Amino acid sequence: MIDPGLRGRVALVTGANQGIGAAAARALAAEGAHVFLTYLRVDRAGHGDPALPRAYDEVRARSAAAVVEAICQAGGRADAWEADLADPAVVPELFNRAEAAFGPVEILVNNASFWHGDTFVPDRAERFGWRLMPVSAETCDRHFAVNSRAPALLIAEFARRHAARGAQWGRIVSLSTGGAPGFPGEVSYGARKDAGESYVMPAGAELG
Fold first, then answer.
1. All structural domains of the chain
2. Which helix (H) or strand (E) holds 13?
3. Calculated CA dihedral for residues 56, 65, 29, 27, nearest 10 degrees
4. Beta strands in 31-114 (DSSP E)
5. How far apart are the first and last CA of the chain?
6. Alpha-carbon distances of 179 from 156, 163, 188, rounded to whole Å
7. pLDDT tens-digit series, residues 115-165
8. What 3-state DSSP class applies to 167?
9. pLDDT tens digits for range 15-55
10. Nearest Cα to 35, choosing from 110, 112, 113, 107?
């Protein structure tokens, strides 16, 4: 077997109460990393989109407790904190809590994202059955805050702390959805994913 050298490393994973984030947290823990999860429950009971499976809303409304419990029962170490990454003040506090639990963060996984379909087409209410909103300051700002600004601030905080302690080993993993071509019917989501990628690529060049 190949040892990836993750045993004892501290990982911070965003959007880790379900889906890809939860899977990433479990995979890191399985390799011996201590994992700190952050997440934000989205409870849309009674307000969900009928075009989406009910399970979609159900998993997004869960806490990260089941993920933490599964990791600990398997012999790993994990903890979690629910926080809204749209708030810039959350970023340093997130690192503070992770460090208090396990020590300095050495692995950052940017996975959390916000999604709501929006469109430039006037009076267009749906696409493939999804409810759409007109592009507005609200749709632009919320997507940018979570999908672009938060990863940028997380990378900056990671880099600042990494340099301050003279660390020599670190990893940043940022997930995206190929935003460059644009997403009709998901205009702000695609644009903000592309902006997020534009933060990540220079981070690799500058910090690598």
1. 10-207 (3.40.50.720)
2. strand 10-14
3. -10
4. 34-39, 77-82, 107-110
5. 27
6. 22, 31, 10
7. 888 999 987 777 666 788 899 999 999 999 999 999 999 999 999 999 999
8. coil
9. 999 999 999 999 999 999 999 999 998 765 544 566 566 76
10. 107
